[in-house]
Design goal:
This is Tetratricopeptide repeat protein. Pfam families: TPR_16 (PF13432), TPR_19 (PF14559). The chain is of the alpha/beta class and 658 residues long. The chain folds into four domains: 183 residues, Tetratricopeptide repeat domain (Serine Threonine Protein Phosphatase 5, Tetratricopeptide repeat, Alpha Horseshoe), CATH 1.25.40; 69 residues, Serine Threonine Protein Phosphatase 5, Tetratricopeptide repeat; 78 residues; 168 residues, Rossmann fold. 53% of the residues lie in helices and 7% in strands. The chain has 31 helices and twelve strands. The longest helix has 19 residues. It starts with a helix and ends with a helix.
Length: 658
């Protein structure tokens, strides 16, 4: 038997070997241990350390044999922990449980024993018992960040996301600079749908590991979620340079390029991502989306249909079908388009249905149905027209956002009492509703294969001024139609009154493409005989750089809801706007509206919603008073707006001179 100094030297050698193993140098660790065992084959710690080397190298059979030999020499609790993990990795969960049980009984205050038992119990689907074992390990080391992280990861795996985040936050408080803790917390936030909140944590990890492509990719995705597109592009490009064959990175980079308007670059990146993983429905849909925006609709349709027919998760197939729906609507293929458009219901959070069953559009025998606003204000205004044909089949209870309620109260069917407009706090169930339906679902439920025609259904003071005859708004190359000027006295009354809206909600992912800084409209300042009225809400005013410095005198929009804005529009001769709710509001009021439309714009402004009249004129099927001024090509920033804004300025000059 070796003397005491010899034993100390052996322990030091084992400790050094395990340190080498921890540092990733398994080869040197094994060499030291083999030399030690040649001198003394009875060293149980050395055999156990060899088991650890084998387990680290993935040789679980050897790990089991080596741990067993160590236990045969001296049955230490931590030897059983290693044996339990090795047996579990081989799929022998019951022998692993027995080994973990010995470890827990032998060393009840060793948290590693309880962690080993938790791993075995989780593998046996004994989730509550596994959680209890992990919490025991944490109770033994309450200030150990790693123990909190292990419990948080377990809770997340078993659907306890909120509790997992709470435990993860405690881990971060214990070790705020721990990169592993920051990364896991960020991943938990991402899983909870809070990728924007994960950005500072992914950022800290990327700063700690600037050469790590995965860390950069996660940081770039979080920046994208926050709308910090330029920085996201830079970070994702760095990640893609390091690992070019990472499809998620290439896809996220493509989506960032798409949000910035660089559609050709987006097509290249999204195409590369799809090529790397052709069976991934999400990547196929992303690629199809940019192809559709570039006008390559046939190729996009094929991708959407392929993804819809795949065995992908339901959400991915629903997204493919929804995108197919918008493509079909853009082409005027309304019958199939409306049905595919319904897939959006699977992608949206719970709506204002009051848990009523969905209405199928059939006659209800006089029992009322709830029709509710589903998405943005513009969508609500556009689809309000379908309330009229719905009334032929059921009494209607209508629910709209509070900001629209006063305006919708002026709608003809509401004023006449044929539609009950619910006030805040009122429920459809209290009025006896038997079913519910989104306004956007009415075309599909009612079986209406073409857009329901526009008609003037609002009555506002001044809204009758400046109305064009149906079909009077011309294509860009056609003659102008001049609205009637507002009555008035003095210089102001003889001027053309024009409303301007240049930016939408910055929360929309592709807002950079549809919105512009107010400075882009500077060419309108050179048009004589015009006074400008802002139709811009304060939030987007602060969104685009330079948008709060008007290049010409601009009357601010008074505070108020959409009815107040409608009264302002009613007193105007013309509205010039980007694709926001203002376009719809002016359209439903019948005001001449010139839409500055982004390249690859929304389906409702596409060719499928355009009617060509016998005399060569064109009109939008949704709003006859609307005229398009579209970007001729995609691009970033203000550059793509130059030509359409110049066309608007020229058209405005002609209008003033008429």
């Amino acid at each position: 038997m070796p003397h005491r100094n010899g034993m100390a030297e052996q322990e030091d050698t084992v400790t050094q070997a395990l340190a080498l193993l921890s540092a990733g140098d398994a080869e040197r660790a094994a060499a030291m241990l083999r030399a030690l065992l040649r001198e003394d084959a009875s060293d149980a710690e050395a055999w156990h350390a060899m088991a650890c080397v084998a387990r680290a190298g993935g040789d679980m059979q050897a790990a089991v044999a080596l741990a067993g030999r160590a236990i045969g020499l001296r049955p230490e609790g931590h030897f059983h922990i290693t044996l339990a993990h090795a047996l579990l990795a081989q799929g022998h969960d019951e022998p692993a449980r027995a080994a973990a049980h010995v470890a827990v009984m032998t060393t009840p205050r060793d948290p590693r024993a309880h962690e080993a038992m938790a791993a075995v119990l989780e593998a046996q689907n004994r989730v509550p018992d596994a959680e209890l074992a992990l919490r025991t390990a944490l109770r033994l080391r309450p200030l150990d960040c790693e123990k909190h992280l292990a419990l948080a990861a377990f809770l997340a795996r078993h659907g306890q996301g909120a509790e997992a985040l709470s435990v993860s936050e405690k881990a971060l408080r214990l070790a705020p600079e721990n990169s592993f803790a920051q990364n896991q917390h960020a991943l938990l936030l991402e899983r909870a749908g809070r990728l924007r909140d994960a950005e500072p944590f992914f950022g800290a990890v990327a700063a700690a590991f600037p050469q790590d492509a995965a860390a950069l990719a996660n940081f770039g995705a979080a920046l994208f979620a926050k709308g910090e597109f330029e920085q996201a592009r830079s970070v994702l490009e760095d990640s893609a340079r390091r690992v070019p064959d990472a499809p998620e990175t290439r896809s996220n980079l493509g989506l960032v390029q798409m949000a910035l308007g660089a559609l050709d670059d987006a097509e290249r990146e999204l195409g590369a991502a799809h090529a790397l993983r052709r069976q991934d429905a999400r990547l196929a849909v992303n690629y199809g989306t940019v192809l559709a925006d570039l006008g390559q609709r046939q190729a996009a349709e094929a991708l959407f249909r392929q993804a819809e027919a795949s065995d992908a998760p339901e959400q991915d197939r629903a997204r493919a079908r929804f995108n197919l729906g918008t493509l079909l609507l853009a082409e005027g293929r309304f019958q199939e388009g409306w049905q595919a458009f319904e897939a959006r219901q699977a992608l949206l959070p719970a709506s204002q249905t009051e848990d009523l069953p969905p209405w199928d559009g059939a006659d209800t025998g006089g029992q009322p149905v709830l029709l509710y606003a589903e998405q943005g204000l513009g969508d609500t205004l556009q689809f309000l027209r379908y309330v009229e044909p719905a009334l032929a089949r059921a009494p209607v209870l209508l629910s709209v956002p509070e900001g629209l309620r006063a305006l919708v109260a002026q709608e003809e069917s509401v004023r006449e009492g044929r539609v009950t407009l619910l006030r805040k706090g009122q429920t459809a169930r209290a009025f006896g509703a038997v079913a519910s339906c989104s306004l956007l679902s009415l075309p599909a439920r009612l079986g209406l294969d073409t857009p329901y025609p526009w008609r003037m259904a609002f009555s506002l003071p001044g809204s009758e001024r400046g109305l064009p005859e149906p079909g009077a708004m011309r294509p860009e190359t056609g003659p102008e139609t001049r609205p009637e000027r507002n009555a008035g006295t003095g210089t102001e009354g003889s001027l053309l009154r024009v409303g301007l809206c240049w930016a939408g909600n910055p929360g929309y992912r592709f807002d950079r493409r549809r919105s512009m800084p107010l400075a882009c409209l500077a060419p309108l300042a050179d048009v004589p005989g015009v006074v400008f009225q802002s139709l811009q809400s304060p939030q987007p005013l602060q969104h685009a750089e330079g948008s709060d410095v008007p290049p010409f005198p601009l009357t601010p929009l008074p505070e108020g809801d959409m009815l107040a804005t409608a009264h302002v529009i009613a007193g105007l001769d013309l509205v010039i706007t980007v694709d926001t709710a203002i376009a719809h509001l002016a359209g439903v009021l019948g005001k001449p509206v010139w839409l500055l439309n982004r390249f690859g714009g929304d389906w409702r402004w596409a060719e499928g919603s355009t009617r060509h009249l016998p005399d060569g004129r064109a009109e939008n099927l949704w709003y006859p008073s609307l005229r398009l001024f579209s970007q001729p090509e995609p691009g970033e920033g203000a550059a793509p707006w130059r030509l359409p804004v110049e066309a608007v300025a020229q058209a405005l000059c002609k209008l003033v001179k008429m």
